[in-house]
Automatic annotation (TrEMBL):
Alphabetical UniProt keywords: FAD, Flavoprotein, Oxidoreductase
Keyword Cell wall biogenesis/degradation: no
Pfam families, A to Z: FMO-like
Listed Gene3D superfamilies: FAD/NAD(P)-binding domain
Family: Belongs to the FAD-binding monooxygenase family.
Protein name, entry field: Cation diffusion facilitator CzcD-associated flavoprotein CzcO
Organism superkingdom: Bacteria
Keyword Flavoprotein on entry: yes
Length: 506
C-alpha cells in the first residue's frame, strides 16, 4: 500500500457529532486522531442548511454541548447562523483545528482482517488507516431529491432546502415549495412577502404548535455569564420538561389529544377560511410525524399570494407543475423541501466490513445497531446518531453526548485488552437489543398514530427514533458490556508467512 497516515481514531464528519467526538477524545487524553470532513468548514447540518428562516426547534440552552455552555445565545430558539458560529467556536476553544481535514469526502472504509484496522479512502485521493472509526456523518445530511417525471427538464431554477441558492433572487417570482416538513414550514413565511406567487405542494399536513421564541435579555445573559450554575439550571429545567413528555409519545399517545387542541387553536387564529383550515388539518395523531413549531406558517398560508395544493407533485411539463390531483401551476422556481436520506444513509454503502459486505447490505432488512452505535460484522466501527437514537421532542445533543460516553468506554476497553485487538458486536447482542427496541416501539405514537413518516423505513419499520427517555439512553450507553462483544485478534501467521508485526501495520 502507498504511504498513508495512520491514526488511532478517525472521526468522519464535523457536525455536532464529529466535533463532540473530537472534544471527548482529547478529554480522554487521546490526541492521535483525525476528523475527515467532506466540506470546507465545520458545522454539518448548521453549515449546509442556510435557507431563509432556518432555526432550531429545541431551545438553545438545551441544544448545545453540556461541556460548552453559551451564556450569550441571542434567542431562546437560535437561528442557523448562531448555531454554526457556536460550532466554529467549539472547534477553536477545544483546539480541534489541527485534527480537522476538510475536503475529505470518505468514499470507502474497508476493514482489514489481518491488520485489524480500517482503510479509509477519500475522494481527494488520500488514504488514512485507523484502529477505530467513529462515523458521525449525520442522520439528515444527504438531501433526498424526488424522482418526478420531467423535473430534470424544468426550465427554471430547482434547488433543495439544504442547498439554498443565495445567488438566485426570488423577488417577484412564482415559487413552488414541495413538501411541508420542518424546513418547508420555516421557508414559506420568510419568502412569502417577496414572491409573486407561492404554491405549496402538501402531501400530508403537519401539526404546527406555537413557537415560544423570544430574544434573551441582557440580564439573563449577564446572569448566566456571572453565575454559570443558572445556565445549568435552565438547561436542566428544559431537559426535565421534555423528559416528562416522553411517556405520552411512547406509551400513552391518547394523552396527546390536548396538544392537538393547542395546535388546532394555533391554526384557527390565523386561518379564517374553513375550507383552507380543513385542508391544513392533519388526520393523524399529533407526534406521529415530527411536531413543528411556528407562529408565522399559518398566517403566511392565509395570504392571497399563497395557494396550498393538497397533493404531491406528480409531474413537471416544462414550467407547468402537475399535482397528483391534476391541478396545474406555473412556476419559475421549485424549492424541494423533500428531506434527507435517513433510513437509507449513503454512508452505509461505503463501509465494507469483516465479511466483505457493505453495511447497507448488512442492513438490507432495516438498519440496526447495538445501543445505536455498533454493527455485527463491522469491528471497531461505531456511529454517532445511529439507528434508533433520534428524538421526537428533545435535543439530539443529549443523545450524541451519551454515545460519546459509550465511545470513550469502548476505547478504554480496547486499552485494557492490550496488544492488537478489536471489538466486534455479537450478532446475538445486536439482535437482542433491537428486539427490545422494536417491542417498545409497538405502543409509540410514531408506530400507532396513523401516519407515514421519515421515521419509518420502506418496510414500515421504525429504525430512527429512540422509544424512551434520554436518561434511559444515557444509562444504556454509560459503559460497554464486554459480554456483548467478541474480541478479535490478528490471525496467527501461517508457516510460510511472515508474522504481521506492529511495525509492519503502522
Ligand atoms: C434543518 C434541520 C433542522 C434541525 N433541527 C433540529 C432541532 O431543532 N433539534 C434537534 O435535536 N435536531 C435537529 N436537527 C437534526 C440535526 O441533524 C442534529 O441535531 C445534529 O445537528 C446532527 O449532527 P451530526 O454531527 O450527527 O450530523 P451533521 O450535522 O449532519 O454532520 C454530518 C457531517 O458529516 C459530513 N459527511 C457526511 N458524509 C461524509 C463523508 N462521506 N465523508 C466526509 N464527511 C461526510 C457532512 O458534510 C457533515 O458535516 C435538524 C436537522 C436539520 C437538517
Amino acid at each position: 500500500m502507498a504511504q498513508h497516515e495512520h491514526v488511532r481514531v478517525a472521526v468522519i464528519g464535523s457536525g455536532f457529532g464529529g466535533l463532540g467526538a473530537a472534544v471527548r477524545l482529547r478529554r480522554e487524553g487521546i490526541t492521535d486522531f483525525l476528523v475527515l470532513e467532506r466540506a470546507g468548514s465545520v458545522g454539518g447540518t448548521w453549515r449546509d442548511n442556510s435557507y431563509p428562516g432556518c432555526a432550531c426547534d429545541v431551545p438553545s440552552h438545551l441544544y448545545s454541548f453540556s461541556f460548552a455552555p453559551n451564556p450569550d445565545w441571542p434567542r431562546t430558539f437560535s437561528g442557523q447562523e448562531h448555531i454554526r458560529a457556536y460550532l466554529e467556536h467549539v472547534a477553536d476553544t477545544f483546539g480541534l483545528r489541527p485534527h480537522l481535514r476538510f475536503d475529505h469526502e470518505v468514499t470507502v472504509m474497508r476493514w482489514d482482517n489481518d491488520r485489524l484496522y480500517w482503510v479509509i479512502e477519500s475522494a481527494n485521493g488520500t488514504t488514512v488507516t485507523a484502529d477505530v472509526v467513529v462515523s458521525a456523518t449525520g442522520p439528515l445530511s444527504d438531501p433526498k431529491l424526488p424522482d418526478i417525471p420531467g423535473l430534470a427538464d424544468f426550465p427554471g431554477k430547482v434547488f433543495h432546502s439544504a442547498q439554498w441558492d443565495h445567488d438566485h433572487d426570488l423577488t417577484g417570482q412564482r415559487v413552488a415549495v414541495i413538501g411541508t416538513g420542518a424546513s418547508a414550514i420555516q421557508i414559506v413565511p420568510e419568502i412569502q412577502p417577496h414572491v409573486a406567487a407561492l404554491t405549496l405542494f402538501q402531501r400530508t399536513p403537519p401539526w404546527v404548535m406555537p413557537r415560544m421564541d423570544r430574544a434573551i435579555s441582557g440580564a439573563e445573559k449577564w446572569l448566566h455569564r456571572t453565575l454559570p450554575f443558572t445556565g445549568t439550571a435552565r438547561r436542566g429545567l428544559l431537559w426535565g420538561i421534555r423528559e416528562l413528555q416522553v411517556g405520552a409519545f411512547t406509551k400513552h399517545p391518547d394523552q396527546l389529544g390536548i396538544v392537538e387542541r393547542i395546535a388546532r387553536a394555533n391554526m384557527a387564529r390565523a386561518v379564517k377560511d374553513p375550507e383552507l383550515r380543513a385542508r391544513l388539518t392533519p388526520s393523524y395523531r399529533i407526534g406521529c410525524k415530527r411536531i413543528l413549531l411556528s407562529n408565522a406558517y399559518y398566517p403566511a398560508l392565509a395570504r392571497p399570494n399563497v395557494d396550498v395544493i393538497s397533493s404531491g407533485l406528480a409531474e413537471v411539463r416544462g414550467s407547468t407543475l402537475v399535482a397528483s390531483d391534476g391541478t396545474e401551476t406555473e412556476a419559475d422556481v421549485i424549492v424541494l423541501g423533500t428531506g434527507f436520506h435517513v433510513t437509507d444513509m449513503p454512508i452505509a454503502d461505503r463501509v465494507i466490513g469483516a465479511e466483505g459486505i457493505t453495511l447497507a447490505e448488512s442492513w438490507k432488512d432495516g438498519m440496526q445497531a447495538l445501543r445505536g452505535a455498533t454493527a455485527a460484522g463491522f469491528p471497531n466501527w461505531m456511529t454517532v446518531i445511529g439507528p434508533n437514537t433520534g428524538l421526537g421532542n428533545s435535543s439530539m445533543i443529549l443523545m450524541i453526548e451519551s454515545q460519546l460516553n459509550y465511545m470513550a468506554d469502548y476505547l478504554r476497553q480496547l486499552d485494557v485488552l492490550g496488544g492488537r485487538a478489536a471489538l466486534g458486536a455479537r450478532t446475538s447482542a445486536v439482535g437482542a437489543w433491537n428486539r427490545r427496541v422494536q417491542e417498545r416501539m409497538k405502543r409509540t405514537v410514531w408506530n400507532t398514530g396513523g401516519c407515514t413518516s421519515w421515521y419509518l423505513d420502506a418496510d414500515g419499520r421504525n429504525t430512527t427514533v429512540w422509544p424512551g427517555t434520554t436518561a434511559e439512553f444515557r444509562r444504556a450507553t454509560r459503559t460497554v458490556d464486554l459480554g456483548e462483544y467478541e474480541v478479535v485478534r490478528p490471525p496467527a501467521p501461517s508457516a510460510d508467512q511472515k508474522p504481521v508485526t506492529e511495525e509492519a501495520v503502522r
